[in-house]
Amino acid sequence: MSNNFQSLLENRRTIYSIGKNVKHSTEALTEIIENAIIHSPSSFNSQSSRAVLLFGQEHEAFWKVVFEKLKEFLRDEEAEARTQAKIASFAAGVGTVLFFEDMDVVKMMQDQFPAYADNFPVWSEHSTAMAQLATWTALAEQGVGASLQHYNPIIDDQVHAKWEIPSNWKLRAQLVLGSIEAPAGEKSFIDNAVRFKVFK
Length: 200
Fold this sequence. Notes:
Layout: H1 4-11, E1 18-19, H2 26-38, E2 49-55, H3 56-70, H4 77-91, E3 95-102, H5 103-112, H6 120-141, E4 144-149, H7 156-162, E5 169-180, H8 192-195
Antiparallel strand pairs: 1-5, 2-3, 3-5, 4-5
Domain Nitroreductase: 10-178
GO cellular component, one term: cytoplasm
GO molecular function: oxidoreductase activity
């Protein structure tokens, strides 16, 4: 059994080889991304997800920030060269979406619903994950390649300072996007019997 939604999910792949040959304008990409995040679900409709969209020089500046921070952890020239090549592959794209969660919203929900207080930080993670998947899938549907990266929390201070991000926004992931310059690799799946239990 197949349907359009299933096909969209299957089409969303991690694309590491990206470029700047995207047919969409920055405005069109922004609309796709914003729409995906706006319509992503959140617990109690808390709408805790936030995003910073970086294009052009701002996108490239972000990956320079990442590399400069990573250099503090590299022990030799070989590791630095490998890391620089990896970061350059991300900078080769057209943009990066920084996904945040507004922790003030999480705290507000905890105060309003104390019986569920311990769950709201977890549900916040669910919210950002769904926003990330929705955005990634929406871009893939438009033929835009992307990969999800996680250089937080080591870059948090630098990102907050450079782009004047509110302190209550917690960085959760970075989705780098661009034209698909090479297809995704083969993907394997564990056996369904390991993953699922079905009772009838």
